[in-house]
Amino acid sequence: MSGPGDGAMDRREMLRLMLCSGLALGGAAAVGLTGCPGDAAGASGGLREAMYYEKLAGNVVRCGLCPRTCTVRDGGRGYCGVRENRGGTYYSLVHGWASTVNLDPVEKKPLFHFLPGSRAFSIGTVGCNMECKDCQNWEISQVLPEQIDRRIDLPPATAVEKAGEYGAEIVAFTYNEPSVFYEFMRDTSELAQAADLRAVMISNGYLNRRPMLDLAPHLDAIKIDLKGFTDDFYRDYCAGTIEPVKESIRRVSALGKWLEIVYLVVPTVNDGLDGIRDMAGWLVRAVGPDVPLHFTRFHPAYKLTRLPPTPVETLEACRRAALDQGLHYVYVGNVPGHPGENTFCAGCGAAVIRRRGYQILERRINADGTCALCGRAIPGVWS
Amino acid sequence: MAALVGVGFTALLYQVILTRELIVSFVGNELIIGIILLAWLLLVAAGSAAGARLPDRRVTVATLAGTELALAPLMAGGLVLARLAGEQGDFPGEIASPTTALVLTAASLAPACLVLGAQFALGCKLLERAAPRAAGRVYVLEATGAVASGVLFHFVIADHLSSVVAVAALVAGNCALAAWLSAGGRSRVTPAAACALGAIFLVPVGWPGLAHRVDGALIRVRSRRDVVAWTNTRYGLWTIGRAAGQLACAHDGVPLFTDSPEPGAEIVHIGLAAHPEPRRMLLIGGGPPAIREALKHPVERLDYAELDREGIRFIARHVPEELARPLRDPRVHLRFTDGRALVKASRRAWDVIVTDLPDPTTAVINRYYTRGFFTEAARALRPGGVLLTGLSSPRATLTGERRLLVGGVWRALSRALPSQAVLPVQESLQFLATLGPPVDVAGLPPRLGERDLDTLFVTPYTLEAELNPLALAIAGEAVEGAAADAPENTDFRPIAYHLQMRLWWRQFAPREELGWLDAVTARSVRQATWIAVALALIAALVAGRRRGFAPVATGLAIALIGLLEMGVQLAVLFAFQTIAGYLYHQIGLLMTLNMLGLAVGAWLAGRLPGRRSGAILAGICALFALVCAGMPWLMRAAAAAPPFATALLGGAALLASLLTGAAFPAGVALSGGAQSRAGARLYALDLVGGALGAAAVSIVLVPLTGLDVTAGALAVLAVAALALLVPAALRARS
């Protein structure tokens, strides 16, 4: 199986090269990011040899990036649609370009215990290793690279440079599943850390052990979506399985990386309180009571356009159930002005961060991450 | 004869009711409507073809009575199936794929449609024994029944009866007809049994409480949710659901708003913040939550355009006071009319116009995204006025159909108003256009702050965050780039709803390329139609003298006439809705005129000598060519003189249906052979042509090539039909 450093070029050398080319490009396009037409011939513009794959007989490869472990014949692509076998060599087609970039409040990711109030230079490409029925971004997550009409040219060094230029403290890999553009994310996050920026991944957690272990040192925080809490649900709703996601949650926590969990509550689909209790109880046992859990409000999207948004009472019931299971930091998301958006100290119960949507209204946490009222440590990355 | 009037009455009424039900069950875009129409016409055609194959000796009045009785459970079952067809996915709220929609539509319609089609053939056979030229008379009788049911539906049923009551009454009527037909004959169907069955179906008609319960039970099963109130108006089904303390309002199954804070309702703040003194405002769509939000600004008068008076009454009765109050606010003027028509008729009336509408999934909604509408809105704005419209677009990533859709609408807007800005807000792209200088986007958050409004989703902070320089640059570049490549969305070339249809299709096959449809251009359509003419001429020259040519040519010509008629009717509907607005009764009148034209045309042609049938049919084709060729001129004339639009366009619709009605008996006479068989065959071909015409014109030709090119193509196809008929006409004369 190929791994880091197995490529044709030494990775450090490649990073240096990319930094140089990126700076040159940045100089040329000082005003903004440049768009370019998509490459209908097969996205050769974003080509880079993939990591974590195994060469099999007859120019067949087996991808080892995510739990799908796709076996791909010559000329074929993996489930994600963005990794292609060309003559027995596996390539990522989504390196160095983005389908979309934006500057988002970090609370929008949502990460509530990670540099509150900071801005994240957010990057998305194309493809996903799941297919969720409510995917808001299906037009980038479920398509092929060549279907993107205009790409944003974004070599890793340019991404980091632009993040700084726009005043972002964080580079976020988001919108579509970042693990499918693993190499791009990894190269960019390395450069971001070198430039004193933080790097975060907004993921479904569907990533194998080795890639996760290798990536984690270059990331500062990871948000993982839990779509439901049974294997059947994952199979029917997302075309995935739950165990690898649970494994990723355990692994990220064990690696000491800042972790937050999001559970999108879809009315009548995954809002049963028994399941919520099971999930919250498992989180307490697996990663401890301090992991923030966000119950976010569903809005109609993709194939679920005939469901109304989640009732706020349902979100409140989920929050209560999770708190009862022993979790300390449980949030209600997508309901601006709801008290469940605030961070309450697990010691004294005071609201130490008051929020309204993505806006921080008040912060009562000391620089060392302790409650300004009782001194109890509030877990997170605060500075 | 009365039974045949009943067949036409039943067929049309049942079709309209089931179409409404299926639109609610599935996503009611133009493709779904096309699928329903296609399935209906093809199934009736199949029934007619099958009926024609029945041996004559087995066809008696009792057979017809049997089919009438069989329709009772089939129609009731079809309604139940159509109701249950929605949300057949794994999860509640999941939309059906095109394949699922097609299969379930066909399953709902098939039993009754096949019988209704067969009844036409049976009618031909029965009447043939009693009178010559029976097929033409059957056509007249059937169309007469359709006229009656069209009038009844549009002017009585749509406003006052639920589908359950209407179908129950229809079924009871059919049972009575079966009893009457079987009375006095040696029939296995006894009048008593038919009467008993009819009486059962009369129960819900006479007991509204029971009908209401059945209606509610079926609505709840379809939506899999707690529906606590509902009403059927002429414009669709309104429901109020309540779950976990939240009230949710939906129209035709699509969620509109809840009583919880919703981001969509706050979009109006962007339009209002863009104007320094928004005193007079027009809001189209958005409902009570959007009105409530708009009233937070210093607005002196807010006009709210809404087609459905009954729908608003229903909402006002069932929503909490917080949402009902804005509807009673003295500043709010509810204008129960077509929003487009209101804008068109207004001059310098408003400081701000906001359209808070769904994306252009149908031709009717698309009328609010065309250059025509934006131009009318520019005239309706006061100096310095602002227009806010938008399209959903998760991220500013514009790919495939979404890119062309956004580009086409932006292009239309750019040509109508002098300055525009694109704002990526809340998973949408909001287009802010003004009559004055460009809006200072950076000034929106502070102005919103100055007004000190109590908002949750659109606040100075969120606006500043969402409208950051990077987001604006990316969105601006994406939209400008898209507009450079996209065809403009116009009234007479409404490409946006076609692209929206493709987007829906791609949700189920995201990696499938539908760009091949773009090969349908004005040039390729012209080429294809002239090739059709050439082929028709070659066929006429080579095979015209052969004995079997006449029936084949007649069949093809009738199918083409069916296609042309449907094409003209759709073109008239498009043009009428654009020029006069979506005016329910006028549209009902147009559809009734269509049916009337078919009946009168068939009746008139049936009185002419049979030896002239070839010449009549050829003349009909020639006239159709003229009607189609004249459509662009007619539409422009109607647009230039809106008060005469109904007369001009209604006249065209009536002429087309007169010609089509007249074609049928002429075609039967020209085909030769047994009248009943020829009649059933031509009836089926007429329907197949109509089905193909409906699909081709509304789904592909009009949106991709425009009404002018479509009308031209139809005129050329009429010439092709004429070319096919000339040898047959000459032969018939000799």
Report on the structure:
The complex is a heterodimer of chains A (383) and B (734). Chain A has 383 residues and is an alpha/beta fold. Among the domains of chain A are: 226-338, Aldolase class I (TIM Barrel); 342-383, no CATH class. Helix content of chain A is 26%, strand content 22%. Chain A is built from 9 helices and 20 strands. In chain A, the strands form 5 sheets. In chain A, strands 9-10-12-13-14-15-16-17 form an 8-stranded mixed β-sheet. In chain A, strands 1-11-8 form a 3-stranded antiparallel β-sheet, with no helix packed on it. In chain A, a hairpin with a 7-residue loop joins strand 4 and strand 5. The longest helix of chain A is centred in the first third of the chain and has 18 residues, at 11-28. The two termini of chain A are 39 Å apart. The relative contact order of chain A is 0.11. Residues 1-31 and 37-44 of chain A have low confidence and may be disordered. Chain B has 734 residues and is of the alpha/beta class. Chain B has 3 domains: 1-224, Growth Hormone, Chain: A, CATH 1.20.1250; 264-494, 3-Layer(aba) Sandwich (Rossmann fold); 520-734, Growth Hormone, Chain: A, CATH 1.20.1250. Chain B has a 7-stranded mixed β-sheet with strand order 7-6-5-8-9-11-10, with helices on both faces. A 4-stranded antiparallel β-sheet of chain B has the order 1-2-3-4, sandwiched between helices. Chain B is globular, with a radius of gyration of 27 Å.
